[in-house]
């Protein structure tokens, strides 16, 4: 029987059998579905989709970025995670960013971390996949060679970055042909990236981690190709080839909390996604009632603890942050009225009273780029992947590696700029900046029921948390849970909220002293849910960031 014809427009929901995929992009989703139909597993498909996103979503992801992958293995019923977060060069110190304006730090060689994405793909394929590294890159090579149709989102993101893109010869050549963004409806090709992927497939990850490609990345970081006549102050970076040679993607134990009969798995530090989503769920579970007020307050408190304790440092008190005793101590602070931010962190020391008042000093929530991308995949065997990948800000640091067709990341601006004595997220040699990425897999009785994640900087955490509450507390199905209007409270004086959220909940929340300020949109989630009897529902955004693309191997409709 012939496979059904592929849709040529994005469809944000699909239900069926044999495997399912949701990404922000039609080409990436089609690539993953093609891998599944040819017998590949969820990891194979996730890597293939991630590589395609490096072509079609180059301002959010790419082989010179990083990310976190959560994988449920159906055979063992075990959840694994891969930490592919970028690292700081060994020459970086706690004071490297002090005195540098944030935006100046972003568009510089100084912000580029040692890439982790290629190492993530390699490790995931070797440990859990069935395809070779070269095979997994083939769909991306085809898309980069043949091109993709420029949509409004790609045009808008290019236009928003045009002022800095023109200040680098390699970036202007690729993304500002004829001095302007490629028009909507045109076909955009990236033959240099196609060749980069071909060489990676032929030579393997070592070509980046110590080889010629790595040397080219280092040269670009240390001597950015600034356009003659540009007045931009572009600081050189500190990366050396030895930093690339030393890089490793890491297998880490996932975070886990139990929430109303569900086991929620996420990423451990240096991501704060698993710990902060998990702590907020624990706080909510300790309350007699869960509504939007309680959602915002639990998030406020969990962010206070995230900022104080979570980073790429020894001794993060993860077990206590996710303990029921600590959650109850924090939950007792939630009343009828909104707390005043910044609230102080709690003390996760294992000794918990009935209602301890925090006495510490609140740390600010650092700036994080709003971009990143997230995808979910399930295969015919019941394996599941939730995968966040990123180059940080929209367009990374704005610098394309000459001749390679890839933008560098600006991940190191996720560090606290300082001075901030004792901050767990200060930069340091070889350190991984704290992340908010929160790819999440939910199990019930040892089997997956849901996978979800989103882009959005530190709003990733609140987006994932809100979707979980929408689905399991507020009576929504998965499609409704993703489409519902969002708000984000991250221990700040104001709560950012989409207009639809303010329209629905504004009067109630403002009466409780919440200060709501409008923001156009929050996040761009993808998710899937197991409906029983091997049926899977894949869901992407209907409208945010141009809408997403969901597909299944065999449709039930």
TrEMBL record:
Species for this entry: Nonomuraea wenchangensis
Gene3D superfamilies documented for this protein: 1.10.246.130, 3.60.20.40
Record protein name field: Gamma-glutamyltranspeptidase / glutathione hydrolase
SUPFAM superfamilies: N-terminal nucleophile aminohydrolases (Ntn hydrolases)
This protein's record includes keyword Transferase: yes
One function term, GO molecular function aspect: hydrolase activity
Organism classification: Bacteria, Bacillati, Actinomycetota, Actinomycetes, Streptosporangiales
Keyword Plastid listed: no
Keywords from the named record: Hydrolase, Transferase, Zymogen
Protein family according to the UniProt entry: Belongs to the gamma-glutamyltransferase family.
């Amino acid at each position: 029987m012939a496979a059904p014809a592929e849709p040529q427009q994005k469809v944000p929901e699909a239900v069926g059998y044999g495997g399912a995929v949701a990404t922000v992009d039609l080409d990436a989703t089609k690539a993953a579905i093609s891998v599944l139909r040819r017998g590949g597993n969820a990891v194979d498909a996730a890597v293939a989709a991630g590589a395609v996103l490096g072509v079609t979503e180059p301002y959010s992801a790419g082989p010179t970025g990083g990310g976190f992958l959560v994988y449920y293995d159906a055979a063992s019923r075990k959840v694994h995670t891969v930490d592919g977060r970028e690292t700081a060069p060994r020459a970086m110190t706690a004071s490297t960013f002090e005195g540098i304006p944030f935006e100046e730090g972003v568009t510089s060689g100084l912000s580029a971390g040692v890439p982790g994405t290629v190492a993530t793909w390699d490790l995931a394929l070797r440990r859990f996949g069935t395809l070779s590294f070269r095979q997994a890159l083939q769909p991306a090579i085809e898309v980069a060679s043949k091109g993709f149709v420029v949509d409004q989102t790609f045009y808008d993101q290019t236009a928003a970055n045009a002022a800095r893109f023109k200040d680098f010869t390699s970036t202007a050549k690729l993304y500002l042909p004829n001095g302007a963004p490629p028009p909507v409806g045109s076909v955009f090709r990236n033959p240099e990236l196609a060749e980069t992927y071909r060489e990676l497939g032929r030579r393997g990850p070592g070509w980046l981690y110590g080889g010629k490609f790595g040397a080219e990345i280092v040269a670009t970081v240390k001597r950015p190709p600034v356009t003659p006549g540009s007045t931009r102050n572009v600081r050189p970076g500190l990366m050396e080839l030895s930093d690339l040679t030393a890089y490793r993607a890491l297998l880490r134990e996932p975070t886990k909390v139990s929430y109303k009969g569900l086991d929620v798995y996420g990423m451990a530090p240096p991501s704060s996604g698993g710990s902060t989503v998990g702590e907020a769920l624990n706080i909510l579970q300790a309350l007699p009632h869960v509504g939007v007020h309680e959602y915002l307050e639990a998030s406020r408190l969990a962010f206070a603890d995230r900022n104080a304790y979570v980073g790429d440092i020894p001794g993060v008190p993860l077990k206590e942050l996710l303990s029921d005793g600590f959650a109850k101590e924090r939950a007792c602070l939630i009343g009828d009225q909104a707390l005043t931010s910044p609230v102080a962190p709690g003390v996760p020391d294992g000794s918990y009273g009935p209602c301890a008042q925090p006495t510490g000093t609140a740390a600010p929530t650092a700036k994080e780029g709003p971009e990143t991308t997230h995808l979910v995949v399930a295969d015919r065997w019941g394996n599941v992947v939730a995968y966040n990948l990123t180059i940080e800000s929209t367009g990374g640091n704005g610098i394309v590696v000459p001749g390679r067709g890839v933008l560098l990341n600006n991940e190191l601006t996720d560090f606290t700029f300082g001075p901030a004595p004792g901050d767990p997220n200060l930069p340091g040699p070889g350190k991984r900046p704290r992340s908010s990425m929160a790819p999440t897999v939910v199990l019930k009785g040892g089997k997956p029921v849901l996978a979800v994640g989103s882009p959005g900087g530190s709003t990733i955490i609140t987006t994932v948390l809100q979707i979980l509450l929408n689905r399991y507390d507020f009576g929504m199905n998965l499609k409704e849970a993703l489409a519902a209007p969002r708000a984000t409270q991250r221990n700040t004086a104001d709560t950012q909220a989409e207009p639809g959220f303010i329209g629905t909940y504004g009067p109630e929340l403002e009466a409780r002293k919440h200060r709501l300020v409008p923001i156009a949109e929050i996040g761009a989630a993808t998710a899937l849910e197991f409906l029983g009897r091997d049926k899977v529902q894949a869901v992407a955004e209907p409208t945010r960031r141009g809408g997403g693309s969901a597909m299944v191997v065999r449709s039930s409709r």
